[in-house]
Design a protein that fits this description.
By secondary structure, this protein is an alpha+beta fold. It is built from six helices and eleven strands. The strands form three sheets. The chain has a six-stranded mixed beta sheet. Strands 9-10-11 form a three-stranded antiparallel beta sheet. The chain has a two-stranded antiparallel sheet with strand order 7-8. A hairpin with a 2-residue loop joins strand 3 and strand 4. The radius of gyration is 29 Å and the shape is flat.
Length: 274
Amino acid sequence: MKNIIAVLAISSLFAVSCNKAEKNTESSEKIETAQPEKFVVDSVSIADSAKIVDSLTAKFDSKLLVFPTIKNKQLLDSIYFSIKGNNDYSKQGLQQFLQKDKMNYFNSIKKDNKDWISDIQFSQEWYESSGMKLISNKNDYMHIQYSWGSYSGGAHDNYGFSERVFDLKNNKKVELKDITSMPKNKIEALLLKNINKANGGATDENGEVNNSEMLLVDVIPATQNFYFDDKNLYFHYSPYEITAFAAGDIIIPISWQELGSTLIPQFKERMKIK
């Protein structure tokens, strides 16, 4: 009888051990098959118009990207740097911001120009436009282009661009110092050297006009308005920033070879630059 009880006890212990082992195996398998959260991009937009007076119509359009999987507050603040007085980066919060921004624009036209706006002699259409565009997301470097445009009378409208690259691994905006240790004056010398590598398309009676012929500055500044791809570092300049308006916006490339040994090793490895 004692032998039978001992055998039953050992069998029960073995069964419990097997069940624990199976559960541990299942748990281990679940951990091994767990997938990282998928990167998601959404957007909100608004487009509307208002008749200010009989001879003036105002149009407003804007688009903002939404990143529901990005949770880091500091990174989100940097992504939405142009949005003032808003800390709600949810889809609903950004949509509400656009609605408020639209009303502020229409009201500002009425208020700021009330003394003379009714004297406009011919029909005009003023506008304000802005947008965010996801250009790339490679090696956890997310490149967003911000654009804006406006017209409020005069010979022509105005427009511009801002390029920002975000390091999604380290939750921050990429700075030039994260890419290269080359002194600023040497980068600026390369910018002047390369200014005609990508012309803006301006022409005269003799054909295409080089960007260098329309320069308004002696030194092209190495700004933080840059982005990059597998081959080059690019600096983007809006009209009037370094050239006449006719030149349009100017993009100047600097190759990785030109930056050479000044490339930061961690950046070079992550971008797989040879």
